[in-house]
Amino acid sequence: MRSYIKGIVSFLVLLSIYSCQTTEVVMNNDDSENKNQTNSKSSNAKFTSAIGFQFETTPKESINELPISKDFMVTLATNSNSILIETLEGTQREDLVEYAKKFNKYKSVPKPGRNDCSGFVRFVFQHFGVDIFKLEIDELKRAGEWINGTEVVYKYAQKHGEVFKNKLPKKGDFIFFDNTHDRNNDGKINDYYTHIAIVVDVEDNGTVHYIHKSGSGINLQMLNTTLANQKMDGKRQVNSYLRGKAKSDTSATPHLAAEMFRGYGSIFKDKKSQSDIEKEKRERDAQIKALQEKAAKEKKEREEKAKKDAEAKKKAELDAEAKRKAELDAKAKRKAELDAEAKKKTELDAEAKRKAELDAEAKKKAELDAEAKRKAELDAEAKKKAELDAEAKRKAELDAEAKRKAELEKQNNQKDNTQNESDLKSTIIKEFESKKLSAKATSKKIKEKNRLEKQAREELVYISLKWSKAKTKPYTPKTSAGMLIQLFKQYELNITDGTEKTDTIEEKIYWFTNKNGFLFLSREPQVGDFVFFDDGGVKKTIIDIGLVLNITDNGDVTYLHLVNGKEKFSVMNRKSTKNFKKFGSLFEKK
Q1: DSSP for 574-587?
Q2: Distance from first CA to last CA of the chain, Å, rounded?
Q3: pLDDT digits (tens, 9 = 90+) for 542-589
Q4: pLDDT at residue number 552
Q5: Nearest 5 degrees, angle CA 473-CA 495-CA 248?
Q6: CA dist., res. 503 & res. 389, Å (int)
């Protein structure tokens, strides 16, 4: 008797904790039966009336259970009298579903239930004597932290039933979801165990109908994992919206239920026939075999990657050693040049000093001779002085004339240089227009940056035009991406490097440009830049790339790309061209 009383007290303590953690609801536990009877017409409406329900955008906490405190978790683990049974019989599926559907269109979970998604599911199962939050203390943690209500139910199903993905569920089973909102506020799709629902029906086409507690209340929705990216299949709805759209969403942000599907769970004991048991065994054997094959494949891929990494590391070491040797040779050469210059300067200084001394001696002798004759030649000296003054004036005039002549020669030289530059530019333009170009890639990759210098722009265009006239193409595959990959190899630049996670070569080039250069829309492109086009779908997958050849004043951009394996010169305008995505550049910014 004392044990029984102790159990009742523990259960009341648990209910009091629930009351502290839940939000206000529209009815209390005392008048729940009257409320159900009053709303029997709406709550017992046909299930098909819920098809097409649209999820309303709500604050993030309303779509996921509220945080569960440590004290609450300890109470769950230690209160042994708060649970009657661990699983349900398969015959109880219909009863559980009908009971859950009674609360359809309720604004909140009836007390003492917790007013969130896992609180509603727990409320329904407790009605049938099962507490799906009943776990040991060490099971309520992951990586040293307390888990949320959805993950508690997930672990409970693993412990007392099963979790699965590769078969359809039955009525009364759980549905687990990830990423129904950005729980950790990091802007990434990495939020797990964020929502839970109960299966109420399964159609022949695989569409699963479920009931759950969302921001707008308790309601019915649907998902179909075979049509994960579709809301409609013809005129039939197969997936509901489960996450509201926000301005911060990217093309990868999921919104439909099947896009956020994690798996199913069940704690029902269904009677299985011998054929079902054998079928499950075959499926398990097939899964084990598939996993073994996958593991072998992944091991082989890891070994191949390790081999490639080792080869790349060895090549990098050899390149670094060659670079160090070149730097040492350059330093030695520069030192020798500086030593030779210092020696030459010393010799010139000594020669200048000796000449100065001779000049000083000659001057002194001349002064002595002049002093001896000075008295006798006063008149001649005056005349000589006049002649010297005239000579000095004449010399100044000659110097001015020489300076003027030098300036004229300088102006003539500048004019000739300008004319030469104009002639050279004219020649380049003629070569560009006639497409009879020959250029050698001389610009190299800027060290540690993967960006090219400005002078490489025209070289890229010249080489690409030369290739377009050649009968044998130096690149495979014969696509725009294949041409650009080979073109940038002229500059020792692999424009698909470091982007293994993307699916296509075009996507690899796009993300390489984003990482090592820059993408833009507002500024004007330049010769040698990229122009990217997508498929116009939801994910905006890159399907074609062009190399910019010319830009007109009205914004028209001429670019080179391949269509059906043949080079084509096309013109686009960012304001009117369909499927235009962005421009990109691997050159240093101005």
Answers
A1: TTT-TTEEEEEE-B
A2: 86
A3: 999 999 999 988 889 999 999 998 989 999 988 888 889 999 999 877
A4: 87
A5: 130
A6: 90
What confidence tens digit (pLDDT) does each residue in 9-66 have? 344 333 333 333 333 222 233 333 333 333 333 333 333 222 232 333 333 333 344 4
Report the C-alpha gap between 171 and 75 in whole angstroms.
Answer: 30
**349: which residues sit within 8 A by CB, 6+ positions away?**
none
Question: Which DSSP string do the residues of 201-223 spell out, in sequence order?
Answer: EE-TTS-EEEEEEETTEEEEEEE
Q: What is the pLDDT of residues 85-115, one digit of tens each?
A: 999 999 999 999 999 999 999 999 999 999 9
Average pLDDT over residues 202-230: 94
Residue 482 amino acid letter: G
Q: How wide is the angle at C-alpha 162 spanned by C-alphas 279 and 103, nearest 5°?
A: 120
Residues 421-474 have pLDDT tens digits of: 445 444 544 555 554 444 444 444 443 445 677 777 888 888 888 888 888 888
- DSSP letters along 229-257, please? T-SEETTEE---B-S---TT--TT---BG
d(CA 321, CA 152): 57
Q: Is the pTM of this model over 0.70?
A: no
H helices of 375-439, in order, are 378-434
> Cα(176)–Cα(502) distance, rounded to whole angstroms?
28
Give the span between the Cα atoms of 511 and 497, in whole angstroms.
Answer: 10
Q: Can you say how many angstroms the Cα of residue 499 is from the centroid of all Cα atoms in its chain?
A: 10
Region class of 143: left (phi > 0), else alpha (psi between -120 and 50), else beta: left
Nearest alpha-carbon partner for 486 in 453, 427, 441:
441
Q: Across all residues in the chain, what is the average pLDDT?
A: 80
Pick left, alpha or beta for residue 146 (phi over 0 → left; psi -120 to 50 → alpha; otherwise beta): beta
**Beta bridge pairs of residue 532:** 545, 582
From the number of C-beta atoms within 10 Å of its C-beta (0-12, 13-18, 19+), residue 250 rates as: exposed
Q: What angle do CA 146, 152, 156 make, to 5 degrees?
A: 140
Structure tokens belonging to residue 32 = 């729940």
Distances (CA, A) of 402 to 13, 382, 391, 405, 415: 110, 30, 16, 5, 20
Distance CA 346, CA 340 (A): 10
**Are 199 and 171 contacting, i.e. CB atoms less than 8 angstroms apart?**
yes
Q: Minimal CA–CA distance to 577: which of 543, 518, 531?
A: 531
Mean pLDDT of 406-413: 67
CB 106: neighbour CB atoms within 10 A?
21
